[in-house]
């Protein structure tokens, strides 16, 4: 009786899903491009086919362990074969997200959407393997012959990982685009109105046609419930329009129409805004209906698989001149930094993205050109004191250098000012202390004194500075340099050796119009006296000590 009850429950479950996905067209993604071009510039990107390429072998492997165990239990979600199935499923949705989310969308948004995809995938896998477990026995309670079991597994796989998955993938594409667009809409506030629009063809559902033309400010509660998509295969959109160009719809009438258009259960689940809630799948989807004891296990496994996948992704984007040990350590360090700062790493930045005053955006010049100014330079040009000048952003070079290094990784951090008693002041005294080797041991720079002693030099010259830079920066990478100036003072900056062997100076503290500078200025202005506490250390192969993260704003 219990087996029959479970099977009847899943028959009803599939009837509901079949009805739910019935409106999803077979080639929705091919129609998206015409409806995702808006004032913000977001458009449907070219991406994978609307038919996801799912690995049937992965499902077969997971089903095999269910057969060997003689049942499926929530604890089996932790098995490697099941974990791989969760990742395989989530990978399909990640393709939809990665291929269709604009690059300007923040890493936090992308992370939230991917997290939702993994959790959704975990519950989808749970139900599919529950059904595999129910297929072990025939109606009389006897173990099925292997051939019969394999036939049933194939049918389950076809339903979940081909028929349903196609509709879910198409929905993920549309939902990702609309969630991304909402970020721009929200940033603009009520400067523009928002207008609901259908695809304007004979395939538009009558329910959605009633909402066509609804025009309200983005802050109106209507958009929290009826921002598209409003169903599987929904091609509706919402576009920003100039305020006053269209009359506002009566808010109560708009909400009443929305309620009437989504009055049955399968429509009500779409009463949410994917951009606000940062979810690509409806929170009330039937997959989420699982026993209470199973839910925390499914969620935990899903989150763990997402973290594992993110580690793999980070390792893949690292340069080949790092060892496997270094790549793994840096990837784990990235997750530690995310946890500590409560932000998420984006794609690695280019030199221009990481530099060009981005690491120290609050830097301002001390003087401004002014024909009536009271300050003069050697050429007789006149200047006045900049009222926005803040000296603490002219003395924070030891924070700007690591900020640049972390920005290259993909962290959108900026340097805090150097103030008395702050961690930033300590960074000026110990600029290399914040970096560690992959094994966790303290990282040590090549000091100028140590290098000069090996060479037999008692003083530095321009030629010797250049020799010093070339000797220490042997491998392509990012190096932090500390140097004493001939005219007094000291500085922390970046040397970057590129794949072609050229070494450039990157100056994160202040941008002069060129990200890649020559070494001439360093060689010319460096002090001839050799100091024991200045040096060079490669940092792109190191991990960052999270106890120093208070150096940065984000």
How much of the sequence is in beta strands?
A: 5-15%
User: How many DSSP E strands?
Assistant: 15
Tell me the count of domains: 2
Query: In what order do the strands lie side by side in the largest sheet?
Result: 9-13-10-11-12
What oligomeric state do the depicted chains represent?
single chain
Q: How many angstroms does the end-to-end distance come to?
A: 59 Å
Keywords:
5-stranded antiparallel β-sheet, alpha+beta, 554 residues, 2 domains, 44% helix
Describe this structure in words.
This protein is an alpha+beta fold. It has two domains: 2-291, no CATH class; 346-360 and 396-553. Helix content is 44%, strand content 10%. The chain contains 18 helices and 15 strands. The protein has helices spanning 2-21, 56-69, 80-100, 107-134, 146-188, 206-209, 222-226, 251-261, 265-268, 274-277, 295-316, 324-341, 351-354, 397-409, 423-429, 448-455, 462-472, 520-525, and strands at residues 192-197, 215-216, 237-242, 367-369, 375-376, 382-385, 414-415, 435-436, 446-447, 477-484, 490-497, 503-506, 535-538, 543-544, 552-553. A five-stranded antiparallel β-sheet has the order 9-13-10-11-12, sandwiched between helices. The chain has a three-stranded antiparallel β-sheet with strand order 2-1-3, with helices on one face. Strands 4-6-5 form a three-stranded antiparallel β-sheet, with no helix packed on it. Strand 5 and strand 6 form a beta hairpin. The longest helix has 43 residues, at 146-188. The protein is flat, with a radius of gyration of 30 Å.
